[in-house]
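FORM 7B: Structural annotation worksheet

SECTION A. Query
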Amino acid sequence: MPDKTNAAPDGQNLHTLTEEVKRYLQLQKRYLALNAVEKVTRLLSAVAVAVVCLMLGAMVLFFALYALAWWAGALLGSVATGFIIVAVLLMVMAIVFYCHRQQWVVQPLARLMAGLFLDNDYEEEEESDE
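SECTION B. Predicted structure
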C-alpha cells in the first residue's frame, strides 16, 4: 500500500493542479500574443521595404523611359515618335507582366506569407518532439 503520510489532502492537490493549469493557460495566451506581434511586425517591415523599393524603382524607371523617349525622338527626328515607341514598349511589358503575374507575384507572395506564418511553427514543433 502506498504511504500517505507525506501526501497532501486531495482538495489541496486539486487546487494546486487548477492553479498550475491557469498559469499555463495565461502563459500560452501571452506566448500567442507575442508570437502574433512578431509576425505582424515582420510582415509590416517587409511591406514597408517593398513599398520604398517599388517607389524608388518606379521613379528610376520613369526617368529612364522619359530619357529613352527623348533620345529615340532625337534619333528619329520626332519627339512624338519617340514617346510612341516608349508607350508601345510599356504596353508590351505590361502584357508580359500580366501573362506571368502568377509566377512573378502570386506565388512569391504565397511563399512569403507561408514562410512568415508557418515555418516557425513547424520548427518549434520539431524541436519539442526531439
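SECTION C. Observations
The mean pLDDT is 88. Helices lie at 10-76, 79-99, 101-117, 119-129.

SECTION D. Sign-off
Analyst initials: ____
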